[in-house]
Amino acid sequence: xxxxxxxxxxxxxxxxxxxxxxxxxxxxxxxxxxxxxxxxxxxxxxxxxxxxxxxxxxxxxxxxxxxxxxxxxxxxxxxxxxxxxxxxxxxxxxxxxxxxxxxxxxxxxxxxxxxxxxxxxxxxxxxxxxxxxxxxxxxxxxxxxxxxxxxxxxxxxxxxxxxxxxxxxxxxxxxxxxxxxxxxxxxxxxxxxxxxxxxxxxxxxxxxxxxxxxxxxxxxxxxxxxxxxxxxxxxxxxxxxxxxxxxxxxxxxxxxxxxxxxxxxxxxxxxxxxxxxxxxxxxxxxxxxxxxxxxxxxxxxxxxxxxxxxxxxxxxxxxxxxxxxxxxxxxxx
Length: 333
Ligand code: AQP
Prior knowledge:
14 helices; globular; mainly alpha; two-stranded parallel sheet; single chain
């Protein structure tokens, strides 16, 4: 059985990009693989977030993931900061990674505003810069064979692979070199108001972002306002028709169809939007209903996270100890 691992930041309410790009395949993977899923709260510290907000978001993210169908009896769901080995391996990998390769990470450039103004980059946190190394540690600790992610995480995955290869080449075979797995549809859901940029939890684009818990009337209103173009033809063409193509991608992800084929069914943007809104509301309905039940019992969610952390730690400890020994750190007597 292959081992899969993936993570999500508790940086805001999950949106349909997170759901179709990652979480939907996490649910399917539980039955086919040994699956580890991590709420990466340490990553969320790389940008401003109030302590009370982070605690609330972490519990909320766990509740939403359980509502989406993750089952603690079939996967290991845990909070990153509850497994100390993640920061332990990060330091070892930081001594293998180079400044140059981290500098090339496009997400760092986007989030830090690098290049926009020299004084701005002076204030950027070191954690935002080294975030991809922590992500590599998240993956390599569990010797994951496969990492299901959205398209935006491909570059970070490539870094994790390079660090694994370099570590093994220098210190002996300790970690598994992971493969990325990116879904065919829904891998890059775009903001409905700005179809040139990806939908994001922290982008401050309330009408451009569809939360997985949005009620049907909110979804309908956001989809109705989605930016399209001045033509009238419904056609799947992400380069010249990014707004319409994004709606077709969403419809395809919600109905497990093909965006180019689906386009042929519509003669107006209005009818496309109506169907997208209905399909999204319908596919998210079980999640919304289960979320309402689970949020009534936060203690049960916390208990399952504690059990997940204990299970994850027992696996992570073995890899960290092997990595420390391979690098020449003296074992405690
Ligand atoms: N727009 C997207 N389309 C498809 N997949 C997406 N993912 C994120 N946005 C989209 C995938 O969701 C998983 C969890 O993402 P994350 O929380 O680790 O952070 P992120 O990639 O930086 O996502 P966000 O939503 O944009 O968060 P913030 O605003 O905090 O940066 C990943 O597998 C990701 O690929």
